[in-house]
User: What shape does this take?
Amino acid sequence: MATISKVSIEKSEFGKTEDGKPVEKYILKNSEGMIVDIITYGGIITNWTAPNKDGEYEDVVLGYNSLDEYIKNTPYFGALIGRYGNRIAKGKFSLEGTEYQLTVNDGQNHLHGGNKGFDKVVWTAEEMPATGNSVSLKLTYISEDGEEGYPGNLTTTVIYTLTDTNVLEVDYAATTDIKTIVNLTQHSYFNLSGDFSKTILNHEIVLHADKYIPVDDTLIPTGELADVTGTPFDFRQAKTVGKEINVENDQLKNGLGYDHCWVLNNQVKGIRLAASAYHPESGRLLEIATDEPGIQLYTGNFLDGKLPSKQGGTYAHRTGFCLETQHYPDSPNLPGFPSVILKPEEIYTSTTTFKFSTK
Ligand code: BGC
Assistant: This one.
């Protein structure tokens, strides 16, 4: 007997931007019961449910209930990040002898695409034909030459695919008409307990990385790739976020906790397991695979109890963590790091999968 697939995608209105652009919400559902809500503003994942060990699906990503809140004060909750995820020192870089000055929006540096990065623009959405056991939404954004200081007209597509195996796959692609730089990522803040009043310090993290990237006190890499052995940055065996986050360590001081990029092992072309996060009480396990060379672990160090939670109350310190797959910060200025240059004859591609299960 043929099984009846229950994957579905539904569209509704989510509000309007300040300049009157309509924003839609797409609800992706799979037949297991997982729901991923994505809005066209910033390509933001506003809700994402995952099962606990009793099979109960609960929302596990921080965010807001209204578009106005996302527009007013978002620390990139759930958003697509571009053109360049992470920091570029003083917003400066050179390509073929031309120096470019990007907007400076994080102290003296450029962060996550500038003042109006890909997290703050309205993307064009297209529902992809359903395949039976997965459902996909394609988002497109055309960033004009000079936007936030970047060279080249850049066309970016991001396809979110939810499968019946509780995987959300994110496929990025971009093309340009002038040599430029690109480094795209997804900025969901997870709290696998499903209760956003709790901290994430008890989550057990694994990072498949023998090295990480030390930074200065403005979070710009020193250029060194440092061995994690014997440091609080060793997550090769499962370790809670909280275990060493408060030990005396210059790098933890610079990041105000973990806010660093790890150098993933097995840097051959192709997708491999990069990281996992496990919440013992609920049994929720999140596994992240990617073809990127790096992953940023950010432990919600700047959350300070001021932003309103969608569950009521506010988001306190360290109530969410991000695992952002990416190329290394400040790569355009550090020739030893893998290249982030995109030429007109090339296509930038990058894939990350987020798989939920229980144990
Ligand atoms: C960065 C943090 C930053 C945060 C913004 C993270 O990706 O690494 O330094 O504060 O994004 O919410």
User: Anything to note?
Assistant: Helices lie at 67-72, 250-255. The mean pLDDT is 97. The chain has two helices and 27 strands. The first strand starts at residue 8 and ends at 16.
